[in-house]
């Protein structure tokens, strides 16, 4: 049907819009964007195409582009609950939880049965650690269908990428309760437990900033040993011993703690 529509009118924005929807169903977001750009070049005010472009950018983690599109849509329809909830998702993925919560509540005030707004409110609660509100509702959201589960997984991996480890752990553990057979999820949660466990606190600079953090620790050690040793040989020796213990700890604790977490479960 779409091929016939293109033959009759190659620039028809509706044909490009429906091709974009098909591309989204096939997870071909680059093709979807191309079709949507073609649709909007013919009809810049095509609201359905603009909202779908927002959704595509959200799935592609193009937060700035998604935010710009949804803000323009909200300017045109300030009380549209779908637009408000969409903007809330951008705020959630960029961990602006206060704004995300406000947008979820406003969308629900406009439409108490709006599914996107309900999902947003549940995910905000999960990230904040409001277990009474989040646990059962998040489980229901995950079970509701592949698209909703994919939204929760996106939130989980976005939090991991942003090193919001405690928040990611809360969401990931709920995902794991519903999908205990997912070994990739198990491995990811073990790493999160590793980084958030109290045993890992002394290694926080390396956990948080990686090689930059490790390099900073080495600089502090070298400068400390040189400076303290210049004033007192005994104090310098004590500091060097502490540094040696810390180095041994930083090499051994991840392996030992990981093995312990794997044996007892996450």
Structure description:
This protein has 266 residues and is an all-alpha fold. The chain is 83% helix and 0% strand. It has 14 helices and no strands. It has helices at 2-8, 13-25, 29-42, 47-59, 63-76, 81-93, 97-110, 115-128, 131-144, 146-161, 165-178, 183-196, 204-231, 233-264. The longest helix is centred in the last third of the chain and has 32 residues, at 233-264.
- Helix % is over 70%
Order of helices and strands: HHHHHHHHHHHHHH
Largest sheet: none
**N-to-C terminal Cα separation, in Å?**
50 Å
Number of helices: 14
Portion in beta strands:
under 5%
Dominant shape: elongated
What's the total number of strands? 0
| Whole-angstrom Rg | 25 Å
From the structure above, extract its key features:
mainly alpha, 266 residues, elongated
Task: Offer a quick outline of the entry.
The chain has 266 residues and is mainly α. The chain is 83% helix and 0% strand.
């Amino acid at each position: 049907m779409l091929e016939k529509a293109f033959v009759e009118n190659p620039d028809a924005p509706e044909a490009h819009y429906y091709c974009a929807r098909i591309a989204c169903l096939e997870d071909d977001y680059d093709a979807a964007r191309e079709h949507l750009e073609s649709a909007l070049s013919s009809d810049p005010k095509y609201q359905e195409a603009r909202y779908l472009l927002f959704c595509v950018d959200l799935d592609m983690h193009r937060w700035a582009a998604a935010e710009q599109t949804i803000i323009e849509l909200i300017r045109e329809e300030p009380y549209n609950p779908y637009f408000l909830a969409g903007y809330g998702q951008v705020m959630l993925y960029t961990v602006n939880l206060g704004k995300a919560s406000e947008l979820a509540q406003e969308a629900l005030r406009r439409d108490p049965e709006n599914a996107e707004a309900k999902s947003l409110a549940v995910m905000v609660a999960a990230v904040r650690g409001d277990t009474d509100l989040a646990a059962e509702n998040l489980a229901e959201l995950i079970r509701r269908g592949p698209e909703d589960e994919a939204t929760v997984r996106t939130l989980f991996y976005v939090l991991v990428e942003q090193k919001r480890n405690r928040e990611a752990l809360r969401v990931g553990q709920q995902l794991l309760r519903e999908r205990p057979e997912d070994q990739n999820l198990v491995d990811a949660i073990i790493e999160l437990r590793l980084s958030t466990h109290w045993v890992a606190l002394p290694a926080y600079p390396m956990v948080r900033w990686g090689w930059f953090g490790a390099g900073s620790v080495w600089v502090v050690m070298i400068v400390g040993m040189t400076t303290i040793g210049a004033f007192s040989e005994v104090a310098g020796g004590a500091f060097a011993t502490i540094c040696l213990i810390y180095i041994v700890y930083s090499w051994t604790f991840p392996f030992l703690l990981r093995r312990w977490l794997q044996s007892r479960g996450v």
